[in-house]
Amino acid sequence: MADITMIKNYLVQADGQLGTDELALKFAALLDLLKEWNEKFNLTAITDDREVIIKHFIDSIVLVKPNKSQSWQTIIDIGTGAGFPGLPLAIIFPEKQLFLSDANAKKVTFLKHVRESLGLKNVTILHGRSEDLSNSKQLRESFDLAVMRALAAFPIALELSSGLVKPGGQVMYYASLKQAAEITNDMKCFKELGCALAGKYDYVLPEDMGNHTIISVNKLWKTPFKYPRAYGAMKKKPL
Q: What is the pLDDT of residue 71?
């Protein structure tokens, strides 16, 4: 069984209001499931308990503190992989609707098992490629927030996500410090996709396990229907 006290201590460091027994127990259950399924499906290269807690759980919820005033109700995690940041966000935001998307069938199976095991009734799992989901009539411009962590280079990630977000909504992109330094509001992708750079939030993970930046993007108007393009076209000629 995962060390509940250790998890609770790191949650308190991230945000004092998150240091509850209920949340710590859910994160402990998530850690146990991740370790169990990782042996079969190779979900993550990070296997040490402390590193999983910091590099997956705490890193996923970093965006909460600087955005407490936001009234997001529908959040989509694009290319969620083993469920990050979507699963931790679903745990700490039971009142919000979280949609976790991935194209990998094994990872989708894992995500569904976690949802049932933890009783996460606010989670919907979407199986499909990001560009196909973005072009879906049901999902197009229907979310308040899109989050992306370790997905793709920024212009590609924004093209994959912007069509899913409502005008007035936001995109949050987890970036390295090097990536963040290269992102400016005069980049072609912002104007083409109906977006603008809102800000950058630098943070340091506990135990010196990483310095990163969250890029905050505002969706200003509707994204043209020609976006997103096929992934090959995006990669060959990023906006």
A: 85
Q: How far is CA 51 from CA 31, 63, 209, in A?
A: 11, 19, 8
CA distance 192 to 143: 19
Instruction: Return d(Cα 187, Cα 197) in angstroms, integer.
Output: 9
- Residue 229 and residue 120: Cα distance in Å, rounded? 33
Q: Which domain holds residue 129?
A: 70-236
Residue 226 belongs to some domain of the structure: yes
CA pair distance 19, 185, nearest whole angstrom? 37
pLDDT band at 158 (very low <50, low <70, confident <90, very high): very high
Q: Across-strand partners of 125? A: 100
- Give the count of domains, the chain: 1
In the chain, what is the straight-line distance between the N-terminal and C-terminal CA atoms, in Å?
A: 46
